[in-house]
Amino acid sequence: MQLLTSLFLGLLSATFAQSESLPSGSARTTTVYAWPLSSPPSKLAEIEYSPEERSASVLSYTPPTSYSNNAVGLVGIGLYNSSTKTWLGTTVTSAASFEPGCQGTISLHVNAEGGVWRAAFHASRRGASLNQNGRDIRDEKPRVEILRPAAAPQPQLNRAVVLSPDGKVPEKEVERTFLQKYWWVFLGVAVLAMTGGGGDR
Q1: Measured between alpha carbons, how far is 149 from 144 in angstroms, rounded to an integer?
Q2: Under 8 Å CB-to-CB from 26, ≥6 apart: which residues?
Q3: pLDDT in tens, 6-50
Q4: CA separation for the pair 69, 139 (Å, rounded)
Q5: What gap in Å lies between CA 63 and CA 102, rounded to an integer?
Q6: N or C: which end of the chain has fewer CB within 10 A?
Q7: Model-wide pTM > 0.90
Q8: For 107-169, where are the alpha helices, taking DSSP H only?
């Protein structure tokens, strides 16, 4: 009996130790790369994010400086998987997104397990290229938004067909015309017109 009790307590303590080492809201990190379509990639931002809480913070951000001179005018944004040596979720944005006066937003698309499968960069233009402290807006860290998969829309099915007691589909009533609906009004007007005589002559 003591052997079973000690074995049970040992398994229970191992289970608690394992659950403490893997917290459910653990933060993850990912690196987003950027490159002109004619140059090699460079690190754009390193981001720490929590997919459960939909919160993120930018650990490091290196705003590109030479992309506005890009002849094509397009910059690739993406993630690199070092284990498979492949690019994931690459998107393209305008090189003008990195010019002075633009505030950037990095969108991280995460799957159901919380892994990032796509990254995108959007920018909105501000009136001034300097912030309230007099620093270049490009030197500010971009905002980060976490986008989780949404449930697919459910189809709206038609109502069930109601059968008549004899098991047949009831036929729709034929819509009557205006004259068929209001013939009695015309009849009354005609009777009044014929019976009402003119005045004395």
Answers
A1: 16
A2: 50
A3: 443 343 333 333 333 334 457 889 999 988 877 788 889 999 998
A4: 18
A5: 11
A6: C
A7: no
A8: none
